[in-house]
Amino acid sequence: MGRPRPAIVVALGLLCACQQHQGFSEQPVTTTSALSTTTTASTTSTTVPLPATPTWRLMAAGDVLLDDTEAAGIDAFAHVSPPLADADLAIVNLETAVASAGTGSAQDKSYVFRTPLSAAGTLARAGVDVVNVANNHSLDFGPAAFVEGLDALRGAGVTPVGGGHDADEASAPVLRTIGGVRVAVLGASRVIADSGWIAGPGHPGVASAYDQRTLVKRVQRAKAEADVVIVVVHWGVELAPCPDATIVGLAKALRAAGATVVLGSHPHVLQPIVQDATGLVAYSLGNFVFHHRTGAAGDTAVLDLGFDGARLVSVTTHPHLLASGPPRPADATASARIRAELNPARCPNVG
After folding, report:
1. DSSP string covering 250-294, please?
2. What is the CA radius of gyration of the chain?
3. Running DSSP on this structure, what letter comes out for residue 85?
């Protein structure tokens, strides 16, 4: 939403930065000053003094529904720690239609989700700035409900990406300037319920990721006008612990085209985070604000990235659980399991 936030000292439990990924670890990407470490029951974090150059913070999380919590008057983000509002830019995948009852009709598919319009305000109050709507549920109640949701989100100060009133809007990047750094966010989906969901001239819908060449060109154009490009892609196989070869190839193509950060969703479980010296791919951030889940589908995390200008300098994960419904910070045992699920060593094909 571009709202100003005060400069803060970012507490970060960090990943290793290297040209070849070497497994998921809690190490600083770059170390230019002394570090003080604090350990709590659920996380280990390292406090890094902010450098003099502009520094900003990106947080990202996985699939968000809000259909049941919003209807029940429950603040689904109440226990998220740290709150998404601590970030300068916070992004989630909004996997539901946001519309008033009676707008549109349910599509002919196994699962459809509708979330009350008030969810737009809930997202804004939680600190969410950008929501990816390029997925297989945003048009669950047809184009009229989809457009109503887009307008409600923007009215609340939350910017949708990856979908729009027409093809140009759906494919356009969201542009922000944070501390003098130009940031572009793109959204696209490789999981689309019906070809009619794809945005066209004068036709609302989502941006497709099935044509890799077209998506790569979108990234290249965004890179020409931004210092940092973030791509949110709905892709992969549900409940698969590792991405397949097609997804890995697409991720590498997006990074080569200029994407600093690639954020994946759709598998509904966590998949590895793979990092090198210039950026990272989070293949799946799993469920986040979802229905009650246990096991792998109930493990989730907030990805917390620190930037010095356009340079990614720190990465941390904040493990959460969905066992009680809305996400809550994980204890030490669950945190260790969650970080193991994010470790690229579990998926040899992602290297």
Report:
1. HHHHHHHHT-SEEEEESSSSB--EEE-SS-EEES-B-EEE-S---
2. 19
3. G
Backbone angles phi, psi at 272, to 5 degrees: -60, 155
What are the distances in angstroms from CA 206 to CA 127, 133, 343?
Answer: 24, 7, 31
Question: Which residues are CB-contacts of 256 (< 8 A; sequence separation ≥ 6)?
Answer: none
Q: What is the DSSP string of 1-68?
A: --------PEEE------SS--------SS--S--EEEE-SS-EEEEEPPPSS-EEEEEEEEEE--HH
Cis check for the bond before 348: say yes or no (omega within 30 of 0): no
Burial of 157 (0-12, 13-18, 19+ CB in 10 A): middle
pTM above 0.85, yes or no: yes
Q: What is the pLDDT of residue 351?
A: 83
Q: Spell out the SS3 assignment of 257-269.
A: HCCCEEEEECCCC
The closest of 60, 79, 82, 61 to 69, measured between CA atoms, is 79
Is residue 47 predicted with pLDDT exceeding 50?
Answer: no
CB-count exposure of residue 18 (10 Å: 0-12, 13-18, 19+): middle
Q: How far apart are CA 292 and CA 323, in angstroms?
A: 6
With H, G, I as helix, E, B as strand and everything else as coil, classify residue 227.
Answer: coil
The mean pLDDT value of the chain amounts to 87
Q: Which residues is 73 bridged to in the sheet?
A: none
**Which residues have C-beta within 8 Å of that of residue 1, sequence separation ≥ 6?**
124, 129, 157, 158, 159
Cα–Cα distance measured from residue 181 to residue 160, given in angstroms and rounded to the nearest whole number? 21
The pLDDT > 90 percentage for the chain reads: 82
Query: Residue 61's closest CA among 90, 32, 38?
Result: 90
Instruction: Give pLDDT tens digits for 67-120.
Output: 999 999 999 999 999 999 999 999 999 999 999 999 999 999 999 999 999 999
Both tokens assigned to 321: 């659980």
